[in-house]
């Protein structure tokens, strides 16, 4: 079943549902939240009760999405579970996965490493720059007229997952969708300012600490930074301040692979890779992770030294091919 057919099948499924819980991945970014809230609004327009769920709080900078949502969201016992922009069950968060993973009927995603965990249907198009692109097509298939709120949500996911349209995953379709969204009233200048031009003072302090400890390998082709819980505490940062730090090592001249280690509250590390030519998803798969060719990640235990050594060894082996 090809992707356009799956979109129509997903629309048919959703029209027959009521009391939906829309799961987003933990440590939410613009694409998973934009997908979730845009779909919530579209379903609400059809008279279908839905709720967006995330394991943790919604970051404050997404208030333009969450504000209208909390004004209208209804409480109910979920009868149907769907997920957006979530390639693997473990990305939902432990509590969410335990409660809902085995009940997910429909998964909408754009990661080539999607684990196909949905019971009934997985709509996954790795060629789409963002999950929000799929949600936009789904909204059309539902026969819902997209309003400015939905357009703002979709634009957020599209812009953040393409790095404001500068990453290699950007396609002609991405630009065409952006043009359509702007025509629907999206204040793209304000959204771009929020996500790409504004940093808290805590974020600046965090960047200073991270860059002070930068390490290089493979003759300068690999650059690595580490962010610990202690650094977050000293900088006065929360999760939303960390978003956007990951691409920094790759911006250094001569660097092919940027590696960011972030210590989690449970003591494990989230490792994020950003590359130009290397297949980041392939490298992360060696450690039980996944993602996209140019942007992927995994979570593991161990010391930063050992984790970096393992990643460097795997990357150098791939570079030598």
What's a quick, concise take on this entry?
The strands form 2 sheets. This protein has a 6-stranded mixed β-sheet with strand order 6-7-8-9-11-10, with helices on both faces. A 5-stranded parallel β-sheet has the order 2-1-3-4-5.
User: Care to count the β-strands?
Assistant: 11
Q: Cα-atom Rg, whole angstroms?
A: 19 Å
- Uncertain parts: none
Largest sheet: 6 strands, mixed
Q: Total number of helical segments? A: 13
Shape descriptor: globular
Structural class: alpha/beta
At CATH level 2, the architecture of the largest domain is Alpha-Beta Complex
* Helicity range: 40-55%
How many distinct folded domains? 2
The proportion of residues in beta strands is 15-25%
Strand order of the largest sheet: 6-7-8-9-11-10
Q: At the fourth CATH level, what is the homologous superfamily of the largest domain?
A: inorganic pyrophosphatase (n-terminal core)
Please report the first level of CATH classification, the CATH class of the largest domain: Alpha Beta
List SSEs in N-to-C order.
Answer: HEHEHEHEEHHHHHEEHHEEHEEH
Mean pLDDT: 95
Look up the CATH topology of the largest domain. Answer: inorganic pyrophosphatase (n-terminal core)
Query: Separation of termini?
Result: 35 Å
Descriptive keywords:
13 helices, 11 strands, Diaminopimelate Epimerase, Chain A, domain 1, alpha/beta, single chain, 321 residues, 6-stranded mixed beta sheet, globular, inorganic pyrophosphatase (n-terminal core), 2 domains
Explained architecture:
By secondary structure, the chain is an alpha/beta fold. It has 2 domains: 3-196, Alpha-Beta Complex (inorganic pyrophosphatase (n-terminal core)); 201-319, Diaminopimelate Epimerase, Chain A, domain 1. Helices cover 43% and strands 17% of the residues. Strands 6-7-8-9-11-10 form a 6-stranded mixed sheet, with helices on both faces. Strands 2-1-3-4-5 form a 5-stranded parallel sheet. Helix 2 packs antiparallel against helix 6 (148-161). The longest helix is centred in the first third of the chain and has 16 residues, at 30-45. It is globular. The model has no long low-confidence stretch (mean pLDDT 95).
């Amino acid at each position: 079943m090809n992707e356009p057919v799956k979109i129509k099948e997903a629309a048919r499924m959703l029209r027959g549902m009521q009391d939906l819980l829309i799961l987003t991945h933990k440590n939410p970014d613009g694409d998973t939240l934009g997908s979730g809230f845009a779909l919530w609004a579209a379903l609400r327009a059809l008279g279908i009760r839905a709720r967006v769920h995330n394991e943790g709080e919604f970051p404050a900078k997404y208030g333009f999405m969450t504000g209208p949502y909390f004004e209208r969201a209804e409480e109910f016992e979920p009868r149907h579970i769907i997920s957006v922009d979530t390639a693997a069950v473990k990305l939902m968060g432990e509590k969410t996965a335990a409660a809902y993973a085995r009940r997910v009927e429909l998964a909408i995603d754009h990661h080539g490493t999607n684990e196909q965990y949905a019971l009934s249907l997985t709509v996954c198009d790795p060629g789409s720059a963002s999950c929000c692109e799929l949600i936009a097509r789904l909204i059309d298939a539902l026969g819902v007229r997209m309003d400015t709120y939905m357009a703002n949500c979709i634009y957020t996911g599209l812009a953040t997952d393409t790095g404001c349209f500068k990453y290699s995953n950007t396609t002609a379709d991405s630009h065409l969708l952006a043009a359509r969204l702007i025509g629907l009233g999206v204040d793209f200048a304000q959204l771009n300012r929020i996500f790409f031009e504004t940093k808290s003072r805590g974020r600046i302090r965090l960047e200073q600490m991270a860059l002070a400890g930068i390490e290089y390998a493979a003759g300068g082709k690999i650059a690595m930074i580490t962010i610990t819980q202690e650094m977050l505490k000293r900088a006065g940062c929360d999760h939303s301040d960390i978003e956007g730090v990951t691409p920094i090592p790759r911006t250094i001249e001569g660097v092919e692979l940027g590696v960011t280690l972030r210590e989690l509250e449970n003591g494990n590390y989230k490792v994020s890779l950003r590359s130009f030519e290397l297949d980041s998803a392939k490298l992360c798969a060696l450690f039980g992770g996944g993602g996209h060719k140019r942007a992927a990640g995994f979570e593991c235990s161990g010391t930063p030294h050992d984790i970096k050594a393992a990643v460097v060894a795997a990357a150098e082996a791939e570079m030598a091919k």
